[in-house]
């Protein structure tokens, strides 16, 4: 422990819109240890993909610091950033739009190698051997080297996306919902592949998903996001055994249980997500929370460490006391 | 790398050679082949090109310019398949000779408009913001002037010559391509493979032209083919009203303009060049329609 590869401090990304500022990511703060996986969960539109792209500086953050191996990447110039891109890669959600339809598998995987001159002076055959090696690593048959993406199925395409990311020999990969567009059977294959690669290459992952079962299987630490902010942050086991924030509870109770009547007492969230456009200074979850009180409208709750390594942003949960327990209809665990 | 691995790398066949590559071009061609209209258009255009080559090889300028006053207004016959005109010149030779003007105007004015228009359209669509604003407003201004009028103004300023005609029609082609390219690029630039290219450190201008543009080019090729037809017509139109190729040269529009005076006396003078113009424009439109279907990957199977 103690070998932090990435630290994000007070990261904000606001988008201009005709009706005001959209607070897509609003003051997010966390760090990832080398070789670990951080899961980021939350519903659609909570800013988790934006967060992933800000960390890679695929979109410019509005404010905050992203410190990768001791350097703030938001302050790098173009040349330094290009160097750094070799260490940070991304795997995309949609394998149908993440591969250029006009390029063959060989061209797609070799592009990062050739473009960044990673194998300076290497012959065509050497680069091809490297591509074949990568294809083998991610489990694509050699005979597909000249195929176009549209000739392949979703799982194979996603493997090519992974091979492209690996071609740069990255240390850190943002996985932006890498399995949500795939069939369940293929999801497992891809997840196992990612796990295997992590073990073999010592990769660090930031795993963005809305599928809690996946994140439980995959992550060391988990961040739960709601409307651009972190509402709960804890190691995977603690979060699943003792979720504290009402939103986390609702999310966890929504995991399907393969049992007749298994999901009967899941917590139903009512109402709509508060608009992310210029949100008022109150708890952003208050409008949908079963336990809200006057305190909830008195400002945005800070993220507090209520027990070792377990952070929650809720006015009613403080270190050593959980006011929610006294409220009516309290459900003790997810 | 050691010498040994290099040797191995060279002696072994490249993996990409061992497996067949299906090229997108071949697939499109196979689809185009099944379209009778497009094939008809293509054949007509090939014949036109062959005629043009023939005219370069076997018809001299003297052949089409020499006046023979004893031979005026002869109707079509074995000796003069299209008859002769008011100065006794063989209309067949003159029409064939004219292919070079119409085809070059059609091809080069569209190529000019395509290159300039697609370049600016891609930049406008990909980069957006004030760059887009400036490019699109300039293009709007150009589009708001009727092509014929713009051509007349340009020719009037530069003087009537074949090159100026080409420039005039080329310029009037630009704005259409700017809009098409912009729209096409807009629909592609949101794809994740663009972000993937950014993630490997590619510069924005390189992404725009090496990743986005190749994926938005099909509709532009279709438009280009259709544009050839309009450009041939525009050239003929400008020549007809005397703003194109200078008079004695046998441009098709000029031939029609010349024949117009003798419409009742010798209708073949307008008929044959007219048929040629119609054939070329018709062939281009058919080919353009066929290409639209052949290049659309959604119609694959």
Give a description of the structure:
The complex is a heterodimer of chains A (334) and B (301). An eight-stranded mixed sheet of chain A has the order 6-7-8-3-9-10-12-11, with helices on both faces. In chain A, strands 2-1-4-5 form a four-stranded antiparallel sheet. The model of chain A has no long low-confidence stretch (mean pLDDT 86). Helix content of chain A is 28%, strand content 24%. In chain A, a hairpin with a 2-residue loop joins strand 11 and strand 12 (310-312). By secondary structure, chain A is of the alpha/beta class. Among the domains of chain A are: 101-163, no CATH class; 245-326, no CATH class. The longest helix of chain A is centred in the middle third of the chain and has 18 residues, at 184-201. Chain B is mainly α and 301 residues long. Chain B has a domain at 107-295: MetI-like (MetI-like fold, Orthogonal Bundle), CATH 1.10.3720. Chain B has helices spanning 3-11, 15-18, 24-33, 36-58, 61-65, 91-127, 129-144, 147-158, 162-189, 192-199, 204-240, 252-260, 268-295. In chain B, helix 8 (147-158) packs across helix 9 and helix 11 (204-240) packs antiparallel against helix 13. In chain B, 43% of the residues are buried. The chains are: A alpha/beta (334), B mainly alpha (301). At the A-B interface, helix 2, strand 6, helix 3, helix 4 and helix 5 of A face helix 1, helix 10 and helix 11 of B.
Terminal Cα span of chain A: 29 Å
Q: Label the structural class of chain A.
A: alpha/beta
Radius of gyration of chain A: 21 Å
- What's the number of helices of chain A? 9
Flag low-confidence runs of chain B: 1-11
Number of strands of chain A: 14
Beta-strand level of the residues of chain B, as a percent range?
Answer: under 5%
Specify the CATH architecture of the domain at 107-295 in chain B.
Orthogonal Bundle
Count the E strands of chain B. Answer: 0
Helix-strand pattern of chain B? HHHHHHHHHHHHH
Query: Taking all residues together, what is the mean pLDDT of chain B?
Result: 85
